[in-house]
Design a protein that fits this description.
The structure is a homodimer. Chain A has 15 helices and 17 strands. Chain A has helices at 3-17, 22-38, 40-56, 61-67, 71-86, 124-136, 150-166, 180-186, 202-210, 234-246, 262-278, 287-292, 300-303, 320-330, 343-352; strands at 94-101, 104-112, 115-119, 140-144, 174-176, 195-198, 224-228, 255-261, 282-285, 296-297, 311-317, 335-339, 357-362, 379-381, 389-391, 397-408, 424-425. Chain A folds into two domains: 3-210, Aldehyde Dehydrogenase, Chain A, domain 1 (3-Layer(aba) Sandwich), CATH 3.40.605; 224-366, Aldehyde Dehydrogenase, Chain A, domain 2. The mean pLDDT of chain A is 96. In chain A, α2 packs across α7, α5 (71-86) packs parallel to α6 (124-136) and α10 crosses α11. At the A-B interface, α1, α10, α15, β13 and β16 of A face α1, α10, α15, β13 and β16 of B. β16 (397-408) of chain A pairs parallel with β13 (357-362) of chain B, so a sheet runs across the interface.
């Protein structure tokens, strides 16, 4: 089967996925839970083979850890499925209801997008999570996982497909791609695929974004800033800098650059340096910062680097405007924080920062679907359209306009005795 | 100035556009009204020069009519601006408000997208309309109009820029592109431009969609269907077919293909043919249709053609499923209508039709921003993400997450004595 055949089948299945009731979808998710438990041995065996090969290829221990899919991980994945079942059905939610004229009712109703292409890293639990998010939202999905997990992924995809077919889901709603060439083929299939969600390294996501006309949801970089205003509480600022940088360095919402207002720089920089160095953070400062504390000098490269490590860059800014210009130039529109005691300055910062998540007096690390209470996280987006910041199931949704008439013709609303529109809110959902 | 310089300046201006108050924006719109009236002579003179040249190049009369921008058209444009001033500010609308924990408040707030690139046909009124929609929504805009209107557009863009600068709008918020090469350059500037809106012929819009990684909002084709179910009221069905096809043939929401359930085809086709031919509509039928009425036979080409003319194709479908398969194969996801007396069949049709506007017992011609009560229309979209169907100002908006804390750190929500999140609706807007 070519990738085009697979995608074409997926598009056909998407039509029927979109029409499934919440009950059928939740039943299918339950079937997946049962099937994962029932086939634990096969899954673990396939995963051990992947692990063996990975060890033979001297994969890094953190990568091996992520690749591992044992009984505990299966249990975790099933718990994730159970909480997804408990979520409300995101399909057919009425977003607007308007009477256009007597007996002519317009509804804006949430609907699945269609076919989602997801390319993800070598974590087999990601396959279960992504497939189930697409199912719950009534979408069909084409999946491509990391090659190291190919054996585990093949087994998981087959188990999920079989389990959901038994629950009356349409054949082909879940397709598995196997090679890099398959991905290249997929990026050309804009006729069949409605949205691509790439997960992985910056370079990889950027590559996907630059090589397809299919809309892409995601983020390449996460260069997050913490701006310490001249009216900041110094202790709070230092604590937020340490939390943003050190609480977990390897993630996209970690703070990478700290901006300090010039007026308070000489007071804040020494204790900030001490606090960061206590956590073994290497500091790279702008010229002005280097004049106040003894740190390595930052280059332009530093301002545009997502370290994902115990390194931070510090810049002294002459004003909030200069800090914002730096953020809007070098930032990635992910998460940017201001520390200040003045609310109007915080709101002005939010208005002027071109960023998905604008925070005031809290850590950049809060930028996360779970912490935001989204129920399930599809990913984090730095897009300027559709969905921005942490994206829940609503990121997999679009809407349909539904107009219900009684034989209404447009000719009656034109010319001499034209009827006019009432445009009156209906205050009731589509049903 | 290169297009890159223009776009880079536009992006800088977009930051400040996004922070403008409703008052400043409405004041700027009023200044445009005054300036258009004050400079009527200059505008009309420039337009007459464009018209003269167009006549010299033997442009079609309908094109000349659209190109004309006289005192009446200026008045119309100004009336459009006045009604835009009266609309609510779409910026900073609170879409969600959630307490994450005591003193840690999350808001989802509507925000402008940033830089919009709009390529439009040879109608100078389109320039005024698009520029003002972008202004009202706090976006910056790069415009490219039809080359026939180049002189008028240059004058209009200068008048609008000058008027809005006097009202404190940032320099460069409106940029005018002049050549086709400029457009090609613009399509590569994904670093500066957040959304492209192309208006014009199918081939043109398709060309834009295929040649940029910048998100595109719009529609290429408008192949709209009317499906007459076996449970349809025959008179209503025929009236809706005539209205959908004939009320205005040259528009994207006109009906191009009529599908008739086989069981009622022999009863409906003869009077349908008579009614359409009375309006001088040429009919092209599938084999089965040709067996029941004397019409020209349709080819595959017909099913995928947006006639925009007094021509319609008719297909007899063995079932609603077959009709839906035809719609989902050949349709453009614009507007598709079912005529039936059974509500559950109508809802099933809506669930299974992969289309922006799914209508029941009314004309496809209702698919329009004004008729839908959107206040202002940005365009009609067949996209599967961001905005679908008739798009109002909300199509020029995205949102920002705003988190307001009191020094909250993520470290406190991890480990042994982790605090938990309350995720409690706040029931108040961001302010």
């Amino acid at each position: 089967m070519t990738i085009q055949d697979l995608a074409s089948g997926c598009k056909k299945a998407a039509i029927f996925m979109a029409a499934l009731s919440a009950d059928v979808k939740n039943k299918a998710l339950s079937e997946i839970v049962a099937a994962l438990y029932n086939h634990q041995d096969i899954i673990i065996k396939a995963n051990q083979k992947d692990l063996e090969q990975a060890r033979g290829e001297n994969l890094d221990p953190p990568l091996l850890k992520r690749l591992k899919f044992d009984a505990d991980k299966i249990k975790e994945a099933c718990q994730g499925l159970e909480s997804l079942i408990a979520l409300e059905d995101p399909v057919n939610d009425t977003q607007k209801a308007l009477e256009l004229d007597t007996g002519l009712e317009l509804y804006k109703v949430s609907r699945p997008i269609g076919v989602i292409g997801v390319i993800f890293e070598s974590r087999p639990d990601a396959l279960v999570q992504i497939a189930s998010l697409c199912l719950k939202s009534g979408n069909a999905v084409l999946l491509k996982g990391g090659s190291e997990a190919a054996g585990t992924n093949a087994v998981l995809a087959r188990i999920i497909s079989d389990a959901t077919m038994a629950a009356q889901l349409p054949l082909g709603w879940l397709g598995l791609l196997e090679t890099r060439e398959d991905v290249a083929d997929m990026l050309c299939l804009d006729h069949y695929i409605d949205l691509i969600i790439p997960r992985g390294s910056n370079a990889f996501v950027r590559h996907i974004m630059d090589n397809t006309v299919i809309p892409v949801l995601g983020h390449a970089d996460g260069i997050c800033h913490l701006y310490i205003d001249k009216f900041a509480d110094h202790d709070m600022a230092i604590e937020l800098a340490v939390d943003g940088k050190c609480q977990y360095v390897a993630v996209c919402n970690a703070t990478e650059t700290i901006l300090v207002h010039e007026i308070v720089a000489s007071q804040i920089l020494p204790p900030l340096k001490a606090a960061l160095e206590k956590q073994n953070v290497e500091i790279r400062g702008c010229k002005k910062a280097c004049g106040l504390i003894d740190v390595k000098q930052a280059t332009k490269e530093d301002w545009q680097t997502e370290y994902l490590d115990y390194i931070v860059s510090i810049k002294v800014a002459a004003s909030m405007s200069e800090a914002l210009e730096h953020i809007n130039t070098y930032g990635s529109g992910h998460t940017d924080v201001i520390v200040t005691n003045q609310k109007e300055r915080a709101v002005s910062f939010m208005d002027l920062a071109d960023t998905a998540d604008a925070f005031w007096n809290c850590s950049s690390r809060f930028s996360d679907g779970f912490r935001f209470g989204l129920g399930a996280e599809v990913g984090i987006s730095t897009n300027k359209i559709h969905a921005r910041g942490p994206v829940g199931l609503e990121g997999l949704m679009i809407y349909q306009w539904r107009l219900m008439g009684k034989g209404h013709k447009v000719a009656d609303y034109a010319g001499q005795n034209a009827r006019s529109f009432s445009h009156k809110p209906l205050g009731k959902p589509f049903q």
